[in-house]
C-alpha cells in the first residue's frame, strides 16, 4: 500500500500544544506580585474542580503548571532605597517631553497600560540605576528620558 493512503491518527494533524514560556532570568517579584501569583493559582484550582471538558482541563492544567513554577521560583525583591531607579520603585519621568509614571515590577505583574513596567522591559533597563534629575538616551534620542522623581512604594 502506498504511504499516501496510510492514516496514522487524527492526532498527528492537530496543532502541537506547548507549555507556556517561562521568562528567562530571575523571577523577581514585589509583595503584590507574589500575592497575585497565589490568587491566580487559587482561581485555576477552583476552575479545575468545576470543569469537565477534557480540552479545557488540559489548558487549565498547563496554566496551573506555569503559575506553580512561577510561585516556586519567585524571589521577593528587597525594598529599594529610593535614591535611584531600581526594582520596586515608582518613577515619574518625562518620556520625549510627556510626563509618565511607572512602577518597576516583575514580569508577571507587568501591565504597561496600568503603569506597571517589567524590569526586563527596554524602558526599565534604560532607567535602572539612574537618579532623579538625570537625562538618559532611549531609542534614537540622546535625551528621551528625564527622571523627575523616584519613590518607594510598599508592597
What does this structure look like?
With 155 residues, the protein is of the alpha/beta class. The protein folds into 2 domains: 23-76, no CATH class; 89-152, Transcription elongation factor, GreA/GreB, C-terminal domain (Chitinase A, domain 3). Helix content is 30%, strand content 26%. The protein has 3 helices and 7 strands. It has helices at 31-50, 54-73, 122-127, and strands spanning 27-29, 74-76, 89-95, 98-105, 116-118, 135-138, 141-152. It has a 5-stranded mixed β-sheet. Strands 1-2 form a two-stranded parallel ribbon. The longest helix is centred in the first third of the chain and has 20 residues, at 31-50. The N and C termini lie far apart (67 Å).
Which descriptors apply to this entry?
single chain, Chitinase A, domain 3, 5-stranded mixed sheet, alpha/beta, 155 residues, 30% helix, elongated, 3 helices
CATH superfamily of the largest domain: Transcription elongation factor, GreA/GreB, C-terminal domain
**Mean of the pLDDT scores?**
89
Could you list the spans in which at least 5 consecutive residues all have pLDDT below 50? none
Strand order of the largest sheet: 5-4-3-7-6
- Describe the biggest sheet? 5 strands, mixed
Judged by helices, strands and strand pairing, the structural class is: alpha/beta
Kindly identify the CATH topology of the largest domain.
Chitinase A, domain 3
Strand segment tally: 7
How many discrete structural domains? 2
Overall geometric form: elongated
Tell me the span between the first and last alpha carbons: 67 Å
Kindly estimate the percentage of residues that lie in beta strands according to DSSP. 25-35%
Cα gyration radius (Å) = 22 Å
By CATH reckoning, the class of the largest domain would read Alpha Beta
Return the CATH architecture of the largest domain: Roll
Task: Provide the helix percentage.
Answer: 25-40%
SSE pattern: EHHEEEEHEE
